[in-house]
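Nucleoside diphosphate kinase regulator
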Amino acid sequence: MKPPKITICSKDYDDLYDLLENEKDESSFKLLRDELNRAHIVNFNELPSNVVRMNSTVKFTVQDNQECFSLKLVYPQEVKNTGTISILSPVGSALLGLSIGQEIEWPLIHGQKTVVHIDAIH
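Structure:
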């Protein structure tokens, strides 16, 4: 599956690159760096409201089992036990810049993958 087009606002882009500059473990941010490198960057006020940005709450469905989730995309220091997901996680990196209705292949454990559908963004 070809990765979908993604759009990121310049503020999130700059903040995330700053985060990457200070991150010691390169393996934890390779996917995020790849996502940032392929993103279309726009000004904050030009980012449509249907696009996942930092601090968005994203409702999505895992296509394999039709399980629905609703998680807030946050910086690593803002992660809580429930309801949040770090931008440095493979899942968090994959969500950034997607819009409602898009699907993306999602990495699972042991090299497996699934497809996730973006249902809503708040």
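The chain has one domain: 7-121.
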